[in-house]
Amino acid sequence: MLVLGIETSCDETGVAVYDSERGLLAHTLYSQVKLHAEYGGVVPELASRDHVRKILPMLDKVLAEANIDKADLDGIAYTAGPGLMGALMVGGSVATAMAYTLKIPVLGVHHMEGHLLAPMLENNPPAFPFVALLVSGGHTQLVSVTAIGEYELLGESIDDAAGEAFDKTAKLLDLEYPGGPRLAAMAEQGIIERFTFPRPMTDRPGLDFSFSGLKTFTRNLIEKNRGEDVLPEQQTMADICAGFQEAVVDTLVIKCRRALQQTSMKTLVIAGGVSANTRLREKLETALSKDGGQVFYARHEFCTDNGAMIAYAGCQRLLAGEKNKLEISATPRWPLDQLIQPQERV
Ligand code: KG4
Ligand code: ZN
How far is the CA of 111 from the centre of ligand 2 (A)? Predict the structure, then answer.
């Protein structure tokens, strides 16, 4: 089955073609980072308009790279949520209009299910069952995954998501948007031991997270260490980044090990933007190898938002016979354990 995947939930336009027989045939991504940088965050209306501008040329490009014609497609998948309403509507409109004219099925995919399944695009994919750590800008969740579509939420953040904590802390340090990867890069120059941040909610049982306190901790450190200028000097900034990153990573590692123990599973999948973090990958690999476990993740470009993960997730569900009515589906808030929207599907 040949499936076109479209991702427009936030500030990245992603388009890809996945074939159930031959794998990923082509994918292309356009990031709006520069557009939003001067505002320090994503401006929803600008995001929607830019998706409108980019999506059709990107579609043509991906079909040409895959060396196929629109008429060869067997189905179309698009991100139906969670995400920004206007941005979601762009992908949904294009996908639904194409499916109507081509007379093929169309399916709205859950963005986090796309992330969760992205490691399946790699050469050595994980086998079910596994625990998934979903760490993005909007979500931090531990999920027990027994099969595609069978997800049980084990724990989640009660306040900021891990990526959000990275971004907000980066903003305090005046790092340019998007802050997460910049903070991670700066942490590499820092001395981890100089500042000891708390590991929130690790001293009590359970699998929930809380990251908002780390922001406050950072704010206080900046206050204490500020130089003549508003911000501390460069090395202190790097040390703060290293201490912050270590606290987030340690907290995630502790909870992942706990989730694996609780479910008696050995396989961990990490997905979403923060799964690109090198320190997180290293520390999980070390911790899990001691426990006889294994960690799987996607290549860097498929950790953050992309069309390939939507084409893959959509293909699996279309193969199982699911499809939507020919109505655009956009669900800005959509829990992962309520994947089927009965009113939308046929
Ligand atoms: O999955 P994603 O692209 O978008 C959402 O669905 O949210 O994740 C973006 C998030 C941002 O918060 C970004 O700062 C974070 O992932 N991120 C990172 C790294 N790369 C991206 N955080 C820490 N270290 C990184 N290397
Ligand atoms: Zn995402």
Answer: 6
